[in-house]
Amino acid sequence: MAGLISYGAHVPYHRLARADIAAVLGSGGGKGTRAVAGYDEDTTSMAVEAARVALGANGLRRRVGQLFLATATPAYLDKANATAVHAALSLDEHVLAADMAGSVRSGIGALVTAAGSTVPTLAVLSDLRTGLPGGSDEAAGGDGAAAFVFGGHRPGSPVIAELLAHDTVSDEILERWRMPGAPASRVWEERFSEDIYVSLAGKALAAALGRAGIDLAAVDHFVVAGLHARACARVRRTVGVRPEAVAPDLTGVIGNAGTAQPGLLLADVLDRARPDETIALVVLGDGASVLLLRATDALPAHRSSRPVAAQIAAGSAPVPYAAYLSWRGLLDREPPRRPDPEPPYAPPAHRRNSWKYGFTASACEKCGTRHLPPDRVCASCRSIDAMVDEPMEQVHGTVATYTVDRLAHTPSPPMLVVVVDYDGGGRFRCQLTDAAEADAVIGARVEMTFRRTVTSGGIHNYFWKARPVRLGPPAQD
Amino acid sequence: MGSHGIRDQVAIVGMGCTPFGEHWDRSADDLLVDAVVEAVASAGITIEDIDAFWLGTQASGVSGLALSRPLHLQFKPVTRLENMCATGSEALRNACYAVASGAYDVAMAVGVEKLKDSGMSGLVGTAMPGAGDDSRGEVTAPANFSLLAPAYAAKYGLPEEELKDVLTRIAWKNHVNGARNPRAQFRKEVPVERIRSAPIVAGMLGIFDCSGVSDGSAAAIVVRAEDAYRYTDKPIFVKALSFVAGPADGVLDPGYDFTTFPEVVAAAQDAYRQAGITDPRSELALAEVHDCFTPTELVLMEDLGFSERGQAWKDAGSGLFDLDGALPVNPDGGLKAFGHPIGASGLRMMFEAWLQLRGEAPPERTVRTVGEGRKLALTHNLGGGPGECVSFVSVVGSEPSA
């Protein structure tokens, strides 16, 4: 039996209230909120966070054979972004890590590729949706990521959703497009493509259902994703599924995360689907794709440790619209009168990939003392070169002392700094993110999160930060 | 193996110190020429009489040429060195050891830094580009030292408001002292309310909790103790020089509690042993300590043995370290009133010890402890931050030991 063996999602902590857009600009906006990637998040870091949830259980990390990162807003061009995700997940060096980047359709492309793979394949869908201030894409968009592992199941990681069938129709259609580097996409008149999409969805759905030998009445969860909101709504309404089977599209609370939207909606359904229920995932964009899955008995015991609904509920109070604009580089704020942050240098970063990306510290073989960052000489017993790797990314800690740095360079001043004492030993000083000043207190419990700390000289600096523990215990690998 | 010290083997016989401040019209070269000229004049010698030079500067020049070129020194040994904020003191230590060894008869230590030309707020780092993997991230100096405040308050059950009052008083005291010092950058007393309500820079620290950014230079001439009275009637004898670089494990060891600088404790204990001091609070006439930020001075009072653990906030609050207190600390105004041109600060501190022990400080700033017969002064620097720093402690005296 082929199918899905694990999944996870990342909904950023921050929200933007759409009403704030209109309050500032006098137009635009709308109702509800959308998820906003933090100033220190991009599609690579969000992909890591989603994949960490998906890979948390059952030693899956050591078995993943391929990684595909799908995004319409890659952090880099030319250079792969999937390799940064690969490094942050400490995957084996022989794992293929490749981008599927540029189009929103790459999300379903990665899912379908993973679903058809014979080795455990990690598909990560990550997107950061922007738009010009006041535009509908800004308000309707959302940021987030979702990750899925298909194939290669074993007793420890059984199939949680069987792949029943898949079908895709491809259609070259000038419906939505964006020149590389442009801040917002353009769309043709919506009604032109609406009819086309509804027709394509019908074709793909019929083909997939036929292949699976089931009919629409058997669909228990009907998920439709795509940037063409009108087309998606009409497909949900008119295709003929039972109304109660239509899955919520979440756009009111977190917006439409583009490439990642099918993943986020599917993860949300998997968070609650019962064994033997059938899920139909329809994705519209330059054609239509349908994945038919059936939940197995194994699903309830292997759901995501961080349900989408819980992440939505744990979101922040809305950030000011001006803060959102400056995070996105749409509002240029006066920098501190300090030298620009240094860009990362390639050789030292590469020498320490396992620390910088994997947050792998060292532990003394003689006395057990943890060293963050890894050292060669033990700070405690002074043994030399008697260290073993000590993965720290899943270890929680407690704030020993803290400060609020109002001078330091940060896209979202002030910078919160904490000294973290980890459960089981070890200490590290780092930034506190997804937090307010009141969260920086002695004794606060924190967990680690992978972030883009700064971009300088056209180079992204990725590293780990602490964030307050708001959701359940970390997954154990 | 041990630290034997060079008690009473060498003496300082001449010093110079420029005013510290915004020297828009002076270069680093100008400043160090000024300090050197004043120092040789006070010793009654010429630059040619000096056999060897140690120049301390963090970022205002590299190599011995940074001193030999502006002075046009004629083929003399000049060592340029750097040890973070203890750089000036480190220059003095090396010059003293060179003379004590017998290698040279007359040595000079010079410290200089030109910070204002950068146009930046606060100190600008000078680490080698690409020295690390960029995983440490930027934390400014005030933020780094502000880590001490909540930790101290938590450890001793002190409400943060009360701690803020104590820190405010430390800043207020040093500004009072600096207001009486013509060489200080800031020469006005600052009302307590203004200090306490100043805009916050980092953590609990307002702008008046931070030392300023300034330019300056200072210099000292060192000779063998037995030669000292040939140069001056009032030489200052070096009793102890102690310097340590810490293992920097406070940043990775949960056992470190951010209420002390173990490096300072180690340097102080070594210095007191070299100098034969058993009770610094009653034996020292004054101390010039590294008040880069107000919580630093607070913690130093305990690390240097002036206050019992957990008591410095009371002692500082009660005026013990005021100009007319039992142990005046930073009578010249400290880094608070002088700013902190890295390479110059340690020698600027020594300059105050030189003035006070010789009875040459202006009357309005003269500590009464000297008149009461105390003859020893301490200077102290630290560089780095809580958990990982270097520290220097010296003890000097106006008389050779009996």
What does this 3D model show about the protein?
The complex is a heterodimer of chains A (477) and B (402). With 477 residues, chain A is an alpha+beta fold. In chain A, strands 5-4-6-7-1-8-13-12-11 form a 9-stranded mixed sheet, with helices on both faces. Chain A has a 5-stranded antiparallel sheet with strand order 19-18-17-20-21. In chain A, helix 2 packs across helix 3. Chain A is globular and about 70 Å long. Chain B is 33% helix and 18% strand. In chain B, helix 2 links the parallel strand 2 and strand 3. In chain B, helix 1 packs across helix 2 and helix 3 packs across helix 13. Chain B is globular. The longest helix of chain B is centred in the middle third of the chain and has 19 residues. With 402 residues, chain B is of the alpha/beta class. Chains A and B meet through helix 12, strand 15, strand 17, strand 18 and strand 19 of A and helix 4, helix 5 and strand 5 of B.
Portion of residues in helices of chain A?
10-25%
Total strand count of chain A, please? 21
N- and C-termini, Cα separation of chain B: 27 Å
Mean pLDDT of chain B: 95
Number of E strands of chain B: 11
Note the total helix count of chain B. 14
At a glance:
The complex is a heterodimer of chains A (477) and B (402). Chain A is of the alpha+beta class and 477 residues long.
Q: Top keywords for this entry?
A:
heterodimer, A: 477 residues, alpha+beta, 9-stranded mixed sheet, 5-stranded antiparallel sheet, 13 helices, 28% strand, B: 402 residues, alpha/beta, two-stranded antiparallel ribbon, 11 strands, 33% helix, globular
